[in-house]
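Q: Sequence in, structure out?
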Amino acid sequence: MDSDATVDALKGLVRAFCEERDWDQYHNAKDLAIGVVTEGSELLDQFRFRSPAEVDAMFTDAAKRDAITEEMSDVLFFLLRMAQMYDIDLSKQLKRKIEINAQKYPISLAKGSNRKYSEEER
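A: Exactly. Output:
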């Protein structure tokens, strides 16, 4: 359960799984980044050619929801593995990135808008 897990515990789970299989030798930054993109593409493929209503309905269909969450888990696995292998504090870095984005997207300009910060009139 999300409320019971820490990022550190999840990184430990991924580390143990990979070390038991002697996969450290295959998990360099390039290959882990490729894994993130590959699995992200498989997640995106779940929604290809679907309308917003169809996408919403997919989350109420048990088999489709399982397929989506498996791909989400694969993306998370590779992100956690890269963070674990390269000693990256994901919680700290996410907070830092949100602070950066708060500067790029101040509420007064970004609320209700999906425009990129570089497209905003300042």
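The chain has a mean pLDDT of 95.
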